[in-house]
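ERR on first pass: missing label on line 2. Operator R.T. fixed the label and resubmitted. Corrected input:
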Amino acid sequence: METNVDTTKEKLDLWCSAPGIAFASPQAEQDYRQRSRRISDVIQLKIPDRVPIAPLVTFFPAQYTGMTMQDVMYDPDKAYAAFKKVAVDFQWDTAMNHINTLCGNMLEALDYKQLKWPGHGVAANRTYQFVEGEYMKANEYDAFLDDPSDFLVRAYLPRICGTLAPLQLLPPLTMIVPYHLGITMMMAGVAFTGAVSALESIIKAQAEFMKLAISVGTFNAEMQAMGFPIMMGGASQAPFDTIGDSLRGTHGIMLDMYRQPDKLLKALDKLLPTAIQMGISSSMTSLSPVVFIPLHKGQMGFMSQEQFKTFYWPTLHKLMLALIEQGLVPMPCFEADYTDRLEIIKDIPAGKAIYWFERTDIFKAKKVLGDRVCIKGNIPASLMCTGTPEQVRQYCKKLIDVVGRNGGLIVDGDIGIPDEAKVENVRAMTDFVKGSGV
Amino acid sequence: MSNELINLMANLKEQETLTIVRRRLDAGEDPLLILDDSRKAMEIVGKRFAKNEYFIPELIYSGEIAKEIAELVKPKLAKVQDINRLGKVIIGTVSGDIHDIGKNIVSFMLDVNGFEVYDIGVDQVPQNFVDKIKQTGSRVVGLSGFLTFAFDAMRETVEAVKAAGLRDKVKIMIGGGQMNDDIRKYTGADAYGMDAMAGVALAKKWVGTK
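pass 2 clean. output:
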């Protein structure tokens, strides 16, 4: 039994108490309280009044409202309208805002290289996709470990944003310190390198970001007032994925596991405080304590059990424990299949996290993890996009019968609602779950 | 000597492997024998992958070692020897999708299992698959896709093959992130492969090897 103050319960209770929300009607207030309580209950492994449904959506609202992905990615107002229509029409237990549609204009202002997005490298109705590369070379671990911020500003940013290329010519950032010479040297650096144009692009980009941020903030307020809690509080990333996605690429990090494992391990540790801080900071302005952690490279097949235990799990584990200590609720999304790793990932305090599974055997997961964490998932994308409503209902029935009985389940698609999901299937899933009790 | 190289390489001892290669080249050995050993080592790697003893890091690492060996050997090579291949396979990621990790692994495993692989890359429109079939006469085509829109892109690719009058001349397999047998039916492909080894098994079946 917990003897200390249960910070998770405190944070979830705060979320449910809806401080500062000006409800549109008494009904909206009742809806909000019921929905947030339902989700808080399943997180804490208590029996809810019914199985909650809290899907993640990215570009499904665009399809649903007859817009292109490019439309919503370039106009926060359009995204707002589309996401609101989804929230209102489907009446899920939470509303999902449009932060994940990103901001095309912001990315363009920076000439951002790590994504291709609708209308910019892929067609108007194709989702954004990551462009992997060796943005940090194999021989640059020392520079990164020695002074990560300097490396990231002068080497990494110039590689991932075309407009920030001049920053690579700046003197080392530590040079700003000595006497009045430092600041003078740095301004000389800025003056002679063209770094001003980089700063100008940042000014442009942040103005575009603010349009999205204001739109999302307004959306959250309106949805909450209408009775829809916002569940996605913050976000963070497993340090292995940060290095594998953004710095070294899959190819690079996998070679590093053999060629320079010690440096890789040091870099993972170096990134851990950042990952923790990111989870905390990104959820600071949200009522919800849930921190989304999409996992990319730890699945079965991508590495052995030993490699998982050595390189992937330790920093992810510490990240989750640190967030839990703050009363936050980590929600790792275990992309692909982790069935063989269930015993390892079971090592988490009970009732403090949500584990979202994609292709993991979710029924086996319930057996192994049922007394430990709330499970989210996992209606297959294939079913949502190409199946029939009856097939969707059958899957939901089994999911609720096996995984949702007595709580511990939040229903979602295995990767959220696919952008191309058939609307009738989304409706079938919604109606079935809402009519199903516990 | 030959076994030593094969074992070291299959066990991913990069430096020791390269030392032996240099020593054998310095001793004036036929470079083709060294390449042959490299290939045998890769076959062992492939087998260990199939048995879940090796995973993607080991495939990538062994691939790097093979590349390094090829570079050491190349200057001493009189001519490239054609080896007997089991058959041809065309593989690519379908239109709109730029993911390549899964596709590369399948290409790699097909290659070390003796296929001549035509990897046409990512984001390939249907016509590019059709053209490649015509150009190579390959009887096996692998479609890779990671994202949900790839369901339709794959279906369109299969339809394009059909429209070109080639459907009964090729077998088509699909794989990647969200794929499964439901999607196989949806796309009209012949088979779905859960992982790289399944892809190899399908290709072998279709070209008539065991």
